[in-house]
Amino acid sequence: MAKVLMFQAFERFWHWSQAGLIIGMLVTGFEIHGSYQLLGWETAVNIHVILAWTLIGLWVFAIFWHFTSGEWKQYAPSSLDKILMMMNYYSIGIFKGGDKPFHKTRAQKHNPLQRMAYLSLHLLITPFIWFSGLLYLFYSSWTAWGLSALSLEWVALIHTAAAFAMLAFIVVHLYMALTMSETPLSSLKAMITGYEEE
C-alpha cells in the first residue's frame, strides 16, 4: 500500500482548531447553563463569546477554502443505497469480518455515511447553534430589530439542544475514528501528519 497525502495542511489546521474551539465552547457553554462551576459564570461567558467569534472567523475561511479548492465535493451526498450499505457494514458486516463497501481515496475521503453525517452537521446542527447563539448574544437589540415577539427561553432551549447534538456528534466521531480504523490511532495519525495508506 502507498502512503497518500489525504489531508492538506489547511484541512488539518481547520479540523484541530475547530475541535479545540468547539470543545472549549461546550465546556464554557455548559457552565453558563449552570451544569457545573469551573471558571465562574462571567469568565465562562466572556471566553464563550471570544471562542464563538473565533470559530465564526475560522468557518468563513474554511467555507472560502472549500469552494476555491473544490473540496466541498467531499460532502456531496451519496445515493441512499450506498448509505444503507455503509450502515449495514457498520452494524453487521464489520462484526462478521465483511469486506468494506467503500475504500478511501484522495478524491473521495469520506464514505457515504460520513458524507451524510458531515453534511447534516454543516447544514443542520451548526446553523441552529450559530443563529440561536447570535440571537442570544444580541438579545438587547431584539426590540430595535423587530424581534421582540421571540422568546428568549426558546432561543436558549434551541441553542442548548444544538449543543447536545454537537456533543453527540463529537462522541460518535471519536468512537468511529478510534474503533473503525485499521488501528485505533491510524485515523488520529492521519489527521496529524496528513498521510494515510490508500
Q: In short, what is this structure?
A:
With 198 residues, the protein is mainly alpha-helical. 64% of the residues lie in helices and 3% in strands.
Could you walk me through the main structural features you see in this protein, from its secondary elements to its overall organization?
Strands 1-2 form a two-stranded antiparallel ribbon. It has one domain: Up-down Bundle (Fumarate Reductase Cytochrome B subunit), CATH 1.20.950. It is elongated. Helices cover 64% and strands 3% of the residues. The longest helix is centred in the N-terminal third of the chain and has 29 residues, at 41-69. The relative contact order is 0.14. It has 198 residues and is mainly alpha-helical. It contains 6 helices and 2 strands, in the order E-H-H-H-H-H-H-E.
The named CATH superfamily: Transmembrane di-heme cytochromes, Chain C
Low-confidence stretches: none
Reported for the largest beta sheet, the result is: 2 strands, antiparallel
The portion of residues assigned to helices is 55-70%
Helix vs. strand class: mainly alpha
Number of domains: 1
User: Radius of gyration, Cα only, in angstroms?
Assistant: 19 Å
Number of helices: 6
**Net shape:** elongated
Order of strands across the main sheet: 1-2
CATH architecture: Up-down Bundle
CATH topology: Fumarate Reductase Cytochrome B subunit
In the CATH scheme, the class would be: Mainly Alpha
Strand content: under 5%
The succession of helices and strands, N to C, reads EHHHHHHE
Q: On the 0-100 scale, what is the average pLDDT? A: 91
